[in-house]
Design brief:
single chain; alpha/beta; Rossmann fold; 7-stranded mixed beta sheet; 28 helices; globular
């Protein structure tokens, strides 16, 4: 039996879900309030994802109260709302001191961290497929008592193609999967697409939904609802629906029983409904409508800005980034966004495509001025690429802005639907390289390696904001087939970097000499040239002479540059902010071997491992690609005296 508690701070008494289950249902709202206070205080000082978790507090409390976790499985989608879950599973102190920090805990569910984190999360739309796999594994292994498996999907992840594939399979595979749709009208930006409109229609169809749920509860009390009558009950539901609604329920059309929508910020209602439906046989979906940022007024009013707000003043709701004095530097994404708008103003064939990340990629700059030429397709990267391919095939010049780690999901589409036809689609790859505290699910580690193998692909990495603009103008010429431009998260180092007047194009496949040297050669790709320059300056003070070249392109390589460097016979260091295996350094090594050169080569890049979370500086040092790591690598190449 639940025991009463007079402790004003219930959260401090919770070290596991077992403690949650000992509470009375009357104590649950107080626990929710405690969690929100904890999140506001902690995240104001140690920032992370904010609004999603605040909106999912009641659901997060209700789940371990009703289900016997970790034996029962809760699979979180994306992971943005999972902070409250971590507070209830023995990680309050770790969260307060080490959330998203090196040697701390991940900002996303991570099975290596806790048995309560059942599946890795970070990319959207995988929860239904993973949870269905777990449900089938439990059934095949004859688990007794029956293991409940719950997929929690929200933040617009239901719009992703993988979610639909999971729904389709769940509908025709015998299982007991419960899908909870945490519908908050948002991903990072407001939701888009017809599915969002459809969910809004379901949300306002209270007359039908209230009637049906009341009828279900009455039939259940009379023991008239069981699996033998499942088909009849669903046919009865559809008949009632025909009387009360003009449209059908897409989920029930798939033979997935639907319940809702219910208030996702009413913990007692959620507990009651979960208890009603948890032991039902067959797949079912519970639709909850919640408020992103719930419990903190600034986040409720502007959930997009408060998705990951950084540090903020709790009392005023003012974010540190709003108080920061301008220093003339710009984020790479904003240089991209402003350049894209300028290009579009001069060329009516240029269009922009993004996948639920208009503000995150700064496509929003063009969207505000030319909404009819900007397409946010939702969390559907594969579709985004093929959609862009279709526009390019019929004469447009699409710029597709997607984070590096998210573009991985569209690899087949890049090959089959763009590169195979040599279509002029420009992939603007944001968050390339190490992204910091978001960790291994978000590092842009693999794009160089996975794109340089694609026939006909041009792959460039500007070393600064000026070069980014020049590459974009080159791509806008539309004469080089598919082109990818990778650039990092955060600000560059230049003051007022936007080019006034004419922007000169770059020559495809042409690198640039930055410094002469007599003892060794450093070949870099992208902004990591700055770290190499610091290392070479330090070595120069010690009496060494190191040449430095910016390769500019990982594909095609500047073969004339490589031939000149190789002919010197000097040792070569390659440096890139991407996985070393298969990257630019690999391409250089292959070229040298293919052409009979025997220069000693050392490759620096990210290791053959998933890099943890931490600050970008910490991670660069960990991977040996900061200035000190580059300096030591060059020293190892030099002849030992």
């Amino acid at each position: 039996m639940p025991v009463a508690s007079t402790n004003p701070d219930i959260l401090s008494t919770i070290s596991s879900p077992e403690d949650v289950r000992r509470l009375s249902v009357q104590q649950l709202p107080q626990l929710c309030a405690d969690i929100r206070r904890f999140l506001i205080d902690s995240l104001s000082k140690n920032p992370g994802h904010f609004a999603s978790g605040m909106g999912a507090v009641e659901l997060t409390v209700a789940l371990p109260y009703v289900f016997n976790t970790p034996s029962d499985r809760i699979v979180w989608d994306v992971g943005h709302p999972a902070y409250p879950h971590k507070l209830l599973t023995g990680r309050q102190e770790a969260f307060a001191t080490g959330n998203r920090k090196m040697n701390g805990i991940s900002g996303f569910p991570n099975p290596a961290e806790s048995d309560y984190d059942t599946f890795s999360a970070g990319h959207a739309s995988n929860s239904i497929s993973a949870a269905l796999g777990m449900a089938m594994a439990s059934k095949l292994q004859g688990d007794t008592p029956r293991r409940n498996v719950v997929a929690v999907i929200g933040d617009a992840s239901i719009s992703g193609g993988l979610a639909f594939e999971g729904l389709n399979n769940a509908a025709n595979t015998p299982n007991n999967l419960l899908i909870i749709l945490n519908d908050n009208d948002m991903s990072i930006d407001p939701n888009v697409g017809s599915l969002n409109s459809y969910l809004a229609q379901l949300t306002t169809s209270q007359r039908y939904n209230n009637f049906r749920y009341g009828a279900y509860r009455a039939l259940r009390k009379m023991h008239l609802v069981d699996d033998r009558r499942k088909g009849a009950i669903m046919r009865f539901n559809n008949s009632v629906k025909s009387l009360l609604m003009r449209s059908h329920n897409i989920f029930e059309g798939l033979n997935i029983r639907y319940f809702g929508p219910f208030d996702g910020n009413d913990v007692n209602t959620i507990v009651k409904v979960l208890n009603d439906i948890k032991d039902m046989e067959g797949p079912r979906i519970l639709h909850l409508h919640s408020t992103k940022g719930k419990g903190y007024a600034p986040a409720e009013l502007n959930p997009a800005a408060w998705h990951a707000p950084g540090r903020f003043d709790v009392a005023t709701g003012v974010r540190d980034e709003e108080k920061a004095a301008p220093d003339g530097r710009m984020k790479y994404q904003d240089v991209f966004g402003n350049t894209l708008l300028r290009l579009a103003q001069n060329d009516d064939k240029i269009v922009a495509v993004t996948a639920a990340m208009a503000s995150g990629t700064s496509v929003s700059v063009m969207q505000q001025e030319m909404p009819e030429r900007v397409f946010d397709v939702g969390i559907s990267e594969g579709h985004a690429v093929t959609f862009a391919g279709g526009m390019a095939k019929d004469g447009m010049k699409p710029f597709v802005a997607i984070y590096s780690s998210f573009l991985q999901r569209a690899y087949d589409h890049i090959i089959h639907d763009v590169a195979l036809m040599k279509l002029p689609v420009t992939f603007c790859i944001d968050r390339a390289g190490l992204v910091g505290e978001d960790g291994p699910t978000h590092h842009g580690a693999f794009d160089i390696a996975y794109l340089r193998t694609v026939p006909g692909m041009t792959l460039g990495a500007p070393r600064n904001e000026i070069m980014l603009q020049r590459m974009m103008y080159t791509a806008a010429g539309g004469n080089c087939g598919p082109m990818a431009i990778r650039y990092p998260r955060g600000k560059g180092r230049m003051q007022n970097p936007m080019i006034e007047g004419e922007v000169p194009a770059v020559e495809i496949g042409r690198g640039e000499k930055l410094r002469d040297g007599r003892e060794a050669v450093a070949l870099t790709l992208g902004p990591i040239a700055d770290e190499a320059a610091i290392a070479i300056d330090s070595l120069e003070k010690e009496g060494h002479s190191i040449a430095h070249y910016d390769m500019v392109f990982a594909k095609p390589l500047d073969e004339n540059l490589l031939a000149a460097v190789a002919a010197t016979g000097l040792p070569i260091l390659t440096v890139e902010d991407g996985i070393a295996n298969g990257g630019m350094g690999s391409a250089v090594t292959e070229w040298l071997q293919d052409h009979g050169y025997t220069n000693k080569v050392k490759r620096l890049g990210l290791p053959d491992a998933f890099v943890t979370q931490g600050t970008p500086a910490q991670l660069a040092a960990l991977c040996g690609i900061d200035a000190e790591g580059i300096k030591q690598a060059i020293k190892e190449l030099l002849p030992q005296s």
